[in-house]
Write a sequence for this structure.
């Protein structure tokens, strides 16, 4: 079995949405390798909260089953969150289908989700150990379908031009160039966690002795790195400064930005061309960088600003992460 869906960029690439059919109802969901819950806007929310979103209506699905007494509650690194009830239904992602997938129906969502009309919920693709369902955690879509897939993998080929895809069960060699380089994943954190012990700026490489590990997180927009790396990068951008009013490094949009790369394991340098560093304008001539600090937390987060330049393979059986240029 295999499945393929398009990944459509929203908010200038702050997130990517893909169509998922649940009990015959289609929603646009954010595939997030940095969390492990599949949750959706549901008709239990108020009409003000639902707004322009598609909301899953369990009463309209002949295959929905409630998991009585089960609940979920989530909060994400950006402060957004959702909570609600739990059931199961048939989930189809581009032809890859799980008949009894646990789905989480939001009865409350944070304001960020209400105002983001593009996202009707998330598909968590991290490891099931970090699933939030209580009283006992549930399996992700990928965990449930892995044994049925032609290969126990899923891939992300994100692209701002709208041609991006997520694929389950196959590695499409037409989507990348050069060699796929694999590195070990430390799944004990529940995330697709790898080591990243060097970086390069403008083609010059720096080794790091005490780098924090990184997670590959399709649900995070930015590249959140250790402060020393971020300072080193923006030291090479003359107009760059940390602007606490916007909560990050900004610079003149006219700057000719140096290329940046971070190590993914020991045998792949994942680069971002200078033209791919800017995340968004904050005024007519000031831009907000896609490289920002992780504020000294114990993980670096490799988000879409980096991932959209590469083809990424998440190998569930061998717990390996593959990357290639595209
Ligand atoms: C909704 C959402 C998902 C993620 C990454 N896991 N963030 C930071 N926010």
């Amino acid at each position: 079995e295999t499945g393929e869906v398009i990944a459509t960029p929203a908010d200038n690439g702050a997130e990517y949405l893909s169509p998922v059919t649940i009990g015959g109802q289609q929603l646009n969901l954010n595939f997030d390798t940095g969390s492990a819950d599949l949750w959706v806007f549901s008709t239990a929310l108020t009409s003000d909260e639902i707004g322009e979103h598609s909301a899953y209506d369990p009463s309209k699905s002949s295959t929905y089953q409630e998991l009585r007494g089960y609940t979920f509650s989530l909060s994400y690194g950006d402060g957004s969150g959702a909570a609600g009830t739990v059931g199961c239904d048939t989930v189809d992602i581009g032809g890859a289908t799980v008949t009894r997938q646990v789905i989480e129906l939001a009865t409350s969502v944070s304001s960020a989700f209400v105002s983001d009309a593009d996202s009707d919920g998330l598909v968590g693709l991290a490891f099931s150990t970090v699933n939030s369902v209580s009283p006992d955690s549930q399996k992700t879509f990928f965990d449930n379908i892995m044994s049925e897939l032609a290969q126990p993998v899923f891939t992300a080929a994100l692209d701002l031009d709208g041609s991006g895809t997520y694929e389950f069960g196959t590695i499409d060699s037409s989507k990348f160039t050069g060699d796929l380089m694999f590195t070990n994943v430390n799944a004990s954190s529940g995330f697709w966690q790898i080591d990243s012990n060097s970086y390069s700026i403008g083609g010059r490489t720096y080794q790091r002795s005490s780098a924090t590990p990184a997670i590959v997180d399709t649900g995070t927009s930015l590249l959140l790195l250790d402060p020393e790396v971020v300072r080193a990068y923006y030291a090479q951008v003359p107009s760059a400064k940390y602007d606490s009013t916007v909560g990050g490094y900004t610079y003149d949009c006219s700057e000719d930005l140096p290329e940046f790369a971070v190590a993914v394991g020991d045998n792949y340098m994942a680069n971002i061309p200078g033209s791919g560093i800017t995340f968004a304008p904050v005024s007519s001539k000031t831009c907000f960088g896609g490289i920002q600090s992780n504020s000294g937390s114990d993980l670096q987060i490799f988000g879409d600003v980096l991932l959209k330049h590469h083809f990424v393979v998440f190998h569930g059986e061998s717990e390996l992460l593959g990357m290639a240029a595209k």
The CA atoms of residues 77 and 292 lie 14 Å apart.
